[in-house]
Amino acid sequence: MGQAMLTGWNARNLAPSAVVAPSLDAGHHAVSRHDLFRDTPSAVAALLEAGTRPAAIVLAVKPQKADAVLPALAPLLGDGAAGPVVLSIMAGRTLAALAAQLPAGSRLVRSMPNTPAAIGRGVTVAVAGAGVDTVQRNLCDRLLRAAGAVEWVENEALLDAVTAVSGSGPAYVFLLAELLERAGTAQGLPPALARTLARATVSGAGALLDALPDDADALRRAVTSPGGTTEQALSVLMAPENWPSAVSDAVRAATERSRALAG
Ligand SMILES: NC(=O)C1=CN([C@@H]2O[C@H](COP(=O)(O)OP(=O)(O)OC[C@H]3O[C@@H](n4cnc5c(N)ncnc54)[C@H](O)[C@@H]3O)[C@@H](O)[C@H]2O)C=CC1
Ligand SMILES: O=C(O)[C@@H]1CCC=N1
Predict the structure, then answer these.
(1) pLDDT tens for each residue of 116-132
(2) Is 169 in the pocket of ligand 2 (CB under 6 A)?
(3) If you measure from the C-alpha of residue 1 to the centroid of ligand 2, how many angstroms do you get, rounded to a whole number?
(4) Does ligand 2 lie within 6 Å of residue 168's CB atom?
(5) Cα-flanking dihedrals φ and ψ of residue 109, to 5°?
(6) Model pTM above 0.95
(7) Are 87 and 109 in contact (CB under 8 A)?
(8) Is the Cβ–Cβ distance between 148 and 116 less than 8 Å?
(9) Which of 212, 217, 211, 208 is nearest to 244 (CA)?
(10) Ligand 2 close to Cβ of residue 116 (< 6 A)
């Protein structure tokens, strides 16, 4: 996901210097390839040796790796209140859990992006922790907005359901493409044609949803001729025990998993 975000920044020509908040010294980098170092202590040492103090540190490791990575950031954070803003994209990991492993007063933002970030079509929800100032919040907003839309919320508890809907959501859509391809092949389509149709249908429908102001249910109804083929398919999919309960159960399970990853 960190790579997808960096791809998004690069695709939009947001070089590190371009995302530095105007009020910060020119030598301060909001993001650099150091962020991609796999070895956090080495990356921290390299930044300190270069005299570079980042304006933001993006935490994009697995939540399960956080315990190993967070303490290694301390030399960069110094006195937390005066240090860089730490922008986490880790699922589940709460602001309180992050704060407990970072110098006192560290300025923290928790966010949940999704993988369409790689083409600038992601959507992220973010929540700012105590003490994050306007400059830091704007910096995080610019970093996240380079990857797509950004929504800020005040209530951190919403992040678990956000993770279940939009963070994990692309996987549900890709699964639909997989299942459509498989079902088309089962109905006799050559596999290559089934693949082409499934991909084009999922991406085309998504693009239509994006391009038109209509609600999803209106677009669905527009496809559905009375007595036609779509109606037959939807009578299966929309049966309460099928997609309505499956999607609801899936989002509930993901929400609960996010809560369990709190740390
Ligand atoms: N994959 C997704 O769609 C989304 C993932 N996230 C969050 O992003 C985070 C990363 O998830 P993925 O990108 O899926 O995992 P990933 O395994 O693709 O990426 C994790 C990265 O962390 C690096 N890494 C591992 N140990 C490290 C260390 N000690 N120091 C520095 N880097 C280290 C790995 O080399 C790898 O590049 C997770 O916290 C996840 O919850 C958030 C939104 C969406
Ligand atoms: O599966 C996960 O835990 C991460 C968070 C949202 C998407 N991928």
Answers:
(1) 988 889 999 999 999 99
(2) no
(3) 9
(4) yes
(5) -130, 130
(6) no
(7) yes
(8) yes
(9) 217
(10) no
pLDDT digits (tens, 9 = 90+) for 150-183: 999 999 999 999 999 999 999 999 999 999 999 9
CA distance 30 to 145: 14
Predicted-complex ipTM score = 0.97
Distance (angstroms) between ligand 1 centre and the Cα of 60 equals 5
Listed in sequence order, the residues at least 6 apart from 158 whose beta carbon sits closer than 8 Å to its beta carbon are 125, 127
DSSP string covering 160-199, please? HHHIIIIISHHHHHHHHHHHHHHHHHHTT--HHHHHHHHH
- Distance from C-alpha of 188 to C-alpha of 172, rounded to nearest angstrom: 25
Angle between helical axes of 216-223 and 191-211 (0-180°, round to 10) = 130
- The number of the ligand nearest the C-alpha atom of 91 reads 1
**Minimal-distance CA residue to ligand 2 atom 8:** 168
